[in-house]
Specification:
This protein is of the alpha/beta class. It contains eleven helices and 13 strands. A nine-stranded mixed beta sheet has the order 5-4-1-8-9-10-11-12-13, with helices on both faces. Strands 3-2-6-7 form a four-stranded mixed beta sheet. The chain is globular and about 55 Å long. The N and C termini lie far apart (about 35 Å).
Length: about 300
């Protein structure tokens, strides 16, 4: 089983072409819906009194949701952002932590047997506490975002020292490591303890760094991008979901997992929020994966 912990959110996303207000989002939501195409996925998080019942039903139908707690005394985490015309640069308008500000992570007993753990870009202190609830996982991976790097940098580094791998986007890697060179960023992150680092580069693909090699994977070529929100989380879900499905940590499996991550991230950007992830099938994923392989073959 794969367990995903992180934010379950209501997102307000603004582009020059359309605005969607308080639609279902959040790092754990994107990652777990993505990974659910590959392996049984349980989600851990907290929602507020304002979380729509039809959103909860969607999660219940796709995931093991016994790890979701409802806090009726507060509102759901809310993230408000604006993209510019090229849909690659995002400005944060508002981050309302709400229910996650004082959340104490807990899990159902059956989750403790999970072999694969993904700590999405949540409060690093909460991520550390949650990680301690799993006695013997095979693979643990974390992510982080600008908000936590700026507000809890030391805790972010401590969190990274306790996991096997880190998935992070290029801008946040540079902010965290205080250097523009991504190779130096990856080496610095791995010097804190992780055995591998994946740096996401959006439309330019992703880079897998391990001790003895670097594997660059081009992004899946997209004709139309609607909403980049959650693409990185969908990438992470596809990546770790594939590893859990294969139950293998061989180098070749990691490379295949990176490609699956790119494929899932490409699906996520084709509509607002999680809409596209709810519309695709396993067959759609396989077709895109095979097309990707033909595209990069030479």
């Amino acid at each position: 089983m794969l367990t995903v912990f992180g934010t379950i959110a209501l997102d307000t996303t603004r582009t020059p072409f359309k605005t969607e207000i308080k639609i279902m989002g959040g790092a754990a939501t994107f990652a777990s819906l993505s990974s659910s195409f590959y392996t049984d996925t349980s989600i851990v998080g907290v929602i507020g009194s304002d979380f729509p019942s039809h959103y909860r039903k969607i999660l219940d139908n796709r995931l093991d949701t016994k790890g979701i707690i409802t806090d009726l005394q507060d509102k759901t985490f809310h993230y408000d952002s604006t993209f510019d015309y090229d849909l690659s640069h995002r400005t944060t308008n508002k981050t309302e932590l709400n229910v996650i500000a004082h959340f104490e992570p807990t899990i159902p007993n059956e989750y403790r047997k999970s072999q694969y753990i993904y700590l999405a870009n949540n409060d690093p202190i909460q991520n550390i506490k949650l990680l301690e609830l799993f006695p013997n996982p095979k693979l643990t991976v974390c992510d982080t975002i600008e908000y936590w790097i700026l507000n809890k940098r030391d805790e972010v580094i401590k969190m990274m020292s306790k996991v096997n791998g880190v998935v992070i986007n290029d801008e946040e890697a540079r902010l965290l490591c205080k250097t523009a060179n991504l190779i130096k960023c990856a080496k610095m992150i791995m010097s804190w303890g992780p055995q591998f680092t994946v740096i996401k580069k959006g439309e330019h693909g992703s880079l897998l760094f391990m001790e003895d090699y670097i594997f660059p994977a081009a992004a899946y070529p997209m004709e139309e991008i609607v909403d980049p929100t959650g693409a990185g989380d969908a990438f992470a879900g596809g990546f770790i979901g594939y590893l859990a499905q294969k139950d293998s940590l061989k180098n070749r499996t990691f490379k295949e997992a990176i490609v699956h991550g790119n494929v899932m991230g490409a699906f996520a950007v084709e509509d607002f929020g999680v809409k596209r992830l709810l519309a695709i099938t396993k067959e759609d994923i396989q077709k895109r994966y095979e097309l990707y392989r033909k595209t990069v073959e030479f």
